[in-house]
Write a structure and sequence with these properties.
Layout: H1 14-18, H2 23-44, E1 54-55, H3 64-83, H4 96-103, H5 105-109, E2 116-118, E3 122-124, H6 133-151
Parallel strand pairs: 1-2
Antiparallel strand pairs: 2-3
């Protein structure tokens, strides 16, 4: 889903983040942000190696399609009917990618850092947008600024 995000997304302001871009793009933007943030975290963490990776749970059968139906009405119902057969993984299997990232010796052996792990235990390439260093820095800076505005100084440099 991170590949669906409009190129206009720049992570430069809270106003941009609060702009209604529709449920599908909004969901994709959260996935893009996860990948970008992980890449910045790997770059900035002072522990070597940090072993930090982004994960995608796969086609987990949850109640999320109901949100699409609510957001898009009849069109959403049609889209859900088309997509639902592909959402076959039970919820309890949705953690496989995260468990692989957290526990597999292959992560260490293959030196997977800042990767994007998809089901089932595969490191995947990301979109050019998810590899954009400036976009990642924008997200990092926006996150830092929002945290500072909400909770004050962090006590360490972010």
């Amino acid at each position: 889903m991170h590949r669906t995000v409009p190129s206009s997304v720049s992570f430069v302001s809270v106003e941009e983040m609060n702009k209604d871009i529709g449920p599908t793009y909004l969901y994709g933007r959260t996935k893009l942000a996860q990948i970008l943030f992980v890449q910045q975290l790997v770059k900035r963490v002072q522990v070597s190696p940090p072993w930090v990776n982004a994960t995608h749970p796969g086609a987990v059968s949850t109640d999320q399609p109901k949100q699409a139906e609510e957001a898009y009405g009849a069109l959403g119902k049609i889209a859900v009917a088309v997509v639902r057969p592909f959402m076959a993984d039970p919820v309890k299997q949705g953690c496989r990618s995260a468990l692989f990232a957290a526990t597999s010796e292959d992560i260490v052996k293959d030196n997977v850092q800042g990767g994007y792990i998809i089901p089932d235990r595969k490191v995947s390439s990301v979109s050019s947008q998810a590899s954009d260093e400036k976009l990642a820095e924008n997200l990092w800076n926006l996150t830092r600024d929002v945290l500072r505005s909400k909770i004050g100084e962090l006590g360490y440099e972010m």
